[in-house]
Design a protein that fits this description.
- The protein is mainly alpha-helical and 80 residues long.
- The chain has one domain.
- Helices cover 85% and strands 0% of the residues.
- The chain contains 3 helices and no strands.
- Helix 1 packs antiparallel against helix 2 (28-49).
């Protein structure tokens, strides 16, 4: 549990630095994207440390692009 607190503290420090640096330059969009990616990465790191069942990225890609590549694959296999 100590490692989860450590990850959270490091993410909070990094988020604060991102917030300050991009706020001074007026980069609101970059600040939002950086904090979103930081939140996703922090959640993933905590999940790995807690040994939660993590989804395989390939399964997600297959789910998203399945409707696109399955008809193309069927069309190619018919010609072979």
């Amino acid at each position: 549990m100590l490692i989860v607190i450590g990850i959270s503290l490091l993410a909070a420090v990094a988020g604060t630095l991102i917030w300050i640096r991009n706020g001074k330059k007026g980069r609101k969009r970059e600040r939002a994207w950086a904090l979103l990616l930081l939140a996703i990465g922090t959640t993933y790191a905590i999940g790995v440390q807690l040994r939660l069942p993590m989804p395989n990225p390939v399964d997600g890609i297959t789910y998203l692009f399945g409707p696109v590549y399955k008809p193309i694959l069927g069309w190619i296999q018919e010609e072979l």
